[in-house]
Amino acid sequence: MFPDIETQLKHLSRGVIDIFPRDEFVARLDAARRANRPLRVKLGIDPTRPDIHLGHGVPLNKLRHFQEMGHQAVLIIGDYTGMIGDPSGQDTTRPQITHEQVLENARTYLAQVGKILDLSRTEVVHNGDWFAKMSFLDVIRLAGHMTVARMLERDDFRKRYTENQPISLHEFLYPLMQGYDSVMVRSDVEIGGNDQTFNLLVGRQLQKDAGQPPQAALTLPLLVGLDGALKMSKSYGNYIGINEDPWTMYGKTMSIPDALLRTYFDLTSDVPPEETERLLAGSPMEAKLALAFALVRRYHGEPAAREASDRFDREVRKKETPEAVPEVRVPPEALEDGRIWIARLVVLCGLAESTSQARRLVTQGAVSLDGEAVTDANLNVTPKAGALLKAGKRKFARLAL
Questions:
Q1: pLDDT at 324
Q2: Can you give the pTM of this predicted structure?
Q3: Which of 58, 87, 139, 177 has the smallest CB count inside 10 Å?
């Protein structure tokens, strides 16, 4: 038996930007409850990269909400759409990747997705199951369902067209392919980011053309990254990966801007709304501590969350040096006249991924050597055996020569 409609709407609309059309969605929920038949709720994910971050987890969380209300989650692994890459929100054509690359990226996807969804109650399909069987004539017929004028109604395509930026024809196929997925799985509801609204509505059109009841569409906001400005992306370095170790995940969560706390609670956590309101009414620090604990617990378990929490309290809040600091040997060939560029030293010790990131840490006053702050990003330093190098609040290395 499904919960009452009011309960379902409250749970399913949390964090949602819009529902197209809302009255149809409510009617579908009501009909499903009366017939005791779960709705088929579709989400497509393209394995364009091997790892999933919290931004990818936003629609997965919403799909989990539908599972909690008793509905059928349908997860489509886009092994064919992934070769094109979703053009939504892009101002240039995405580089195409091979089918082999997509499949390799997808190799660990289910293990990662399983940290959010109940896979025992999830229908998982690849859209290559039907696109690989299509003939060129089938592709022509599919393309016949869309006009160029309609395609140029998309904000991103229209912007690129008016600015004389190239649009490749294969990009026009992407919305049709995503919409055709809805036909093939007979979805009742599709979930997507608000940048995918056009694609979701194409699914409604293709379902109508195929004689199916058109799906309702739920749009979700794109998660803003740790910089508080751009959407979360590995390319921008402002992400929290769901496979990152507990300490890194906890520390990154503590760096979330205060203004984004409600968004992160609503879109990324399993903290109940009532508890979220109580936390947000208090201090931002305590709310972040609760959010960090909740995220690490969700992806790594309660013991890992407690360990990360205790370590953060010791090393960051009480500013104690960690008990176990990794020792890093500085090779002679890295030195010039016994000195080394500070940014290179930070990277050599594994405290930054690149010298540009290390330079930013230095200029932000986040780097110290043996307790003395280093603020000149062009400085060459003389490393000493046993010296403690610190970058940010949580990364340390003990130098060895």
A1: 67
A2: 0.78
A3: 139
Backbone angles phi, psi at 3, to 5 degrees: -60, 165
Residue 24 domain flag:
yes
Q: Which residues contact 368 (CB under 8 A, 6 or more apart)?
A: 374, 389, 390
Q: Which of 357, 336, 342, 333 is nearest to 397 (CA)?
A: 342
**The token pair that represents 108 in the structure block:** 């660990």
CATH number at residue 356: 3.10.290.10
Q: What is the residue type of 65?
A: H
H or E segment to which residue 254 belongs: helix 246-254
Q: Which residue segment(s) compose the domain that 105 sits in?
A: 5-220
Query: In this structure, is residue 228 part of a structural domain?
Result: no
Q: What is the DSSP string of 209-264?
A: HTTSPPPEEEEEPPPB-TTSSSBP-TTTT---BTTS-HHHHHHHHHTS-GGGHHHH
Look at residue 225 and tell me whether its pLDDT is greater than 90: yes
Residues 168 and 308 in one domain: no
Q: What is the CATH number of the domain that holds 91?
A: 3.40.50.620
Which is more confidently placed, 153 or 184? 184
- Total of domains in the chain: 3
Full DSSP string of 267-288: HH----HHHHHHHHTS-HHHHH
pLDDT digits (tens, 9 = 90+) for 282-291: 999 999 999 9
pLDDT of residue 320: 60
Query: What residues pair up with 367 in beta bridges, in sequence order?
Result: 374, 391
- 266, 292, 317 - which closes a domain: 317
Q: How far apart are CA 231 and CA 233, in angstroms?
A: 6
pLDDT over 80 (residue 370): no
- Tokens encoding 65: 């909400």
Beta bridge partners of 18: 219
- What Rg, from alpha-carbon coordinates, does the chain have? 24
H or E stretch including 388? strand 388-391
Asked if the structure places residue 311 within a domain, the reply is yes
Each residue's pLDDT tens digit, 56-105: 999 999 999 999 999 999 999 999 998 987 777 666 677 788 889 988 88
The rounded Cα 286 to chain-centroid distance in angstroms is 24
Q: Return the pLDDT at 29.
A: 96
One-letter identity of residue 36? N
**Which of 213, 45, 37 lies closest to 124 in space, CA to CA?**
45
Query: CA-to-CA distance for 262 and 275, rounded, in angstroms?
Result: 11
Report if residue 303 sits inside a domain.
yes
Residues 70 and 159 in one domain: yes
C-alpha 100/C-alpha 104 separation (Å) is 6
For residue 341, which of 355, 361, 329 has the smallest C-alpha distance? 355
